[in-house]
Design brief:
Layout lengths: L4 H8 L6 E2 L7 E7 L4 H9 L1 H11 L2 E6 L4 H13 L6 H16 L4 H11 L4 H9 L2 H14 L7 E5 L7 E5 L4 H13 L1
Parallel strand pairs: 2-3
Antiparallel strand pairs: 1-3, 2-4, 4-5
Length: about 190
């Protein structure tokens, strides 16, 4: 691909459907792609997300999250992420809530019930939850496919990191084995 992470997200048409994890930083330096079906993604969200955001804030790095996955539960949680992103809550809380909702969806709970339960916990109004549920499964699937065409996912969680001096040069890696390893990989990608 060509362009910065922001350029690529805009070209793919997914920029308005990602979760901005660092709202005060406009240009994104890190894009995380994950799915609620992935054990490593869940572990990252539970154990590493807040550490990553503290590191990113200290370094002035913008971070966004894009969901993928084609199971029924990951399609549902992808739809939820776009709607939950409207909540007046911390971005880490929103993503953690999406992953909690994804676990409920995997047990067979119906999407409307899960959307209402977790949407209300985040403070969303009934009409906001209805709007979120009105999005067609085809639109969600098309968005996931656009994400995967633009950002070659080789495993999840997948991290795309812009080079500090040439932000059009994007380095990528996948996996989660703890924050110190992740920070080292990000630091290396920023100068590669």
């Amino acid at each position: 691909g060509e362009g910065t992470l922001d350029d690529r997200m805009t070209r793919a048409g997914i920029d308005s459907h990602t979760l901005d994890l660092t709202p005060g930083i406009v240009a994104k330096s890190i894009l995380i792609i994950g799915t609620t079906d992935c054990t490593y993604c869940r572990s990252f969200v539970e154990d590493g997300l807040e550490k990553l955001l503290a590191y990113a804030k200290a370094a002035g790095l913008g971070v966004a999250y894009a969901p993928i996955g084609l199971s029924e539960s990951s399609l549902g949680s992808t739809r939820l992420l776009a709607g939950f992103a409207r909540a007046n809550a911390a971005p880490a809380e929103i993503l953690q809530t999406v992953y909690a909702a994804g676990l409920d969806l995997r047990t067979g709970r119906e999407l409307p019930l899960v959307a209402n339960r977790y949407g209300e916990e985040l403070g969303l109004a009934g009409h906001e939850i209805k709007e979120m549920l009105a999005e067609s499964e085809l639109d969600v699937t098309s968005r996931i496919q656009a994400t995967m065409r633009t950002f070659p996912v080789q495993g999840t969680p997948m991290f795309f990191v812009a080079n500090d001096k040439a932000p059009e040069r994007i380095n990528m890696f996948s996996g989660w084995s703890g924050f110190s390893s992740l920070q080292g990989r990000i630091d290396a990608a920023r100068i590669a």
